[in-house]
Write a structure and sequence with these properties.
Length: about 200
């Protein structure tokens, strides 16, 4: 049975539309028995630590050269690496905040990406991501609608795809959106948004 990792990153708790959408994705996948086990990580309940000088120094060491005294600094990063390593399907939800991902999700990504673990340098200087055969579903909620922005103002899906592709090797990303949440939504029909899932 496949394992899913569900990452939520809205500070609006039960009111969150992005969380509602990612929960509906998880529900659909479990109903169809495509996933059997779901690991939850709420990035607002347990916020990722922000980077500092010491931690950045440890991140740029190859994993086998990290000393015992530094291991506790990497506890969060090690935990989220292991969660993603063990997951077949990763469902991530984020609010649109000032056109980008939530600060919590950005901080999670900054803890996830690690040389020697999520990506490696090849002899010719290019990089290769280390994960294979993982599927990402991305659920984005925005107060306005994408159609209101000029062309080229999509920064969330493109950013997630770029980071995952370059630094983890995960390239299979499918995005669902709930738009116009600040414009008054009476009844949210998540199933309609997910009709092609
Ligand atoms: C700090 C902040 C910044 C926001 N920036 C944008 C934005 O740039 N574009 C937009 O359409 N909505 C923006 N919104 C509205 C949210 O995207 C909207 O409330 C969405 O439903 C949030 O997702 P959630 O319901 O999962 O929390 C912003 C809201 C907040 C609190």
């Amino acid at each position: 049975m496949k394992k899913a990792l569900h990452i939520t990153s809205s500070a609006r708790g039960g009111l969150s539309f992005s969380r509602g959408l990612s929960m509906a994705i998880i529900q659909k996948l479990t109903d169809r028995k495509e996933v059997g086990v779901v690991v939850e990580r709420d990035l607002v309940q347990s916020p990722p630590p922000l980077l500092d000088e010491v931690l950045i120094g440890e991140f740029y060491k190859q994993p086998d050269s990290v000393g015992e005294e530094a291991r506790h600094l990497l506890a969060y990063a090690d935990a989220i690496f292991s969660e993603i390593d063990q997951a077949d399907v990763i469902v991530i939800s984020t609010p649109m905040h000032n056109l980008g991902v939530s600060a919590h999700l950005k901080a999670w990504l900054d803890q996830l990406v690690r040389v020697g673990l999520t990506y490696k340098f090849n002899e010719d200087g290019t990089k290769s991501g280390c994960f294979k055969n993982k599927k990402v579903y991305l659920a984005i909620a925005s107060g306005g609608k994408m159609a209101f922005w000029p062309e080229g103002y999509e920064f969330i899906e493109s950013y997630i795809k770029a980071v995952f592709g370059a630094y983890t090797g995960i390239t299979d990303v499918t995005t669902y959106r709930i738009e116009g949440t600040a414009m008054g939504i009476a009844d949210v029909d998540y199933q309609e948004i997910l009709r092609d899932l």
